[in-house]
Design a protein that fits this description.
The protein has 160 residues and is mainly alpha-helical. The protein has helices at 5-23, 28-48, 59-66, 70-82, 119-126, 151-159; strands at residues 56-57, 86-90, 98-101. The protein has a domain at 27-101: Arc Repressor Mutant, subunit A.
Length: 160
């Protein structure tokens, strides 16, 4: 039994729902913090008409949005920093930090990008090439002929 492009397309539709949660690098609570950050950045960018790279937020903003404790917010922000979703831009230990969102705030978090095959690219590869009738992307030129190794040089090198 052979897999068809329709089978791959169906798998691409089903896989994010079935495997998405298990392949997500973020725990659910950290994902919730990231979603709150994206919402804060989105609202500020639209209200102040600024670019996302100029929109900073603080721990206090997140605590006010989620109603969580200082410790909870700190733990999840540290995790997001380690995974390079956010970066600390201003502040130092003992003072207030300002953070920047490094990912796109318009990116939806409910769809998991799990690296499946792109059906459109596969369809392009299946179209025959006009010159040689082979499938594009699947045909390789014949291997180049390798020059034979001369035995005498090999033995001279080994004895030296």
């Amino acid at each position: 039994m052979r897999v068809t492009l329709d089978d791959i397309a169906l798998a691409n539709q089903l896989a994010p729902d079935l495997l998405g949660r298990s392949l997500d690098e973020l725990p659910p609570q950290t994902r919730r913090v990231l979603d709150a950050i994206k919402q804060i950045v989105r609202e500020r960018c639209e209200a102040e008409e600024i670019e996302p790279r100029h929109c900073f937020f603080s721990r206090r903003d997140i605590r006010a949005r989620l109603g969580w404790s200082v410790t909870q917010v700190r733990v999840h922000l540290d995790r997001l920093r380690e995974l390079e979703h956010i970066a600390a831009r201003y502040g130092r230990p003992g003072s207030a930090f300002q953070y920047e969102l490094l990912t796109d705030y318009r990116e939806q978090s409910d769809t998991a990008l799990i690296g499946l095959l792109d059906v459109e690219k596969l369809q392009v590869r299946r179209k025959p090439d006009g010159n040689n009738g082979h499938l594009t992307g699947g045909w390789r030129p014949p291997a180049r002929q390798v020059q034979p190794v001369e035995e005498s040089r090999l033995t001279l090198n080994l004895t030296a």
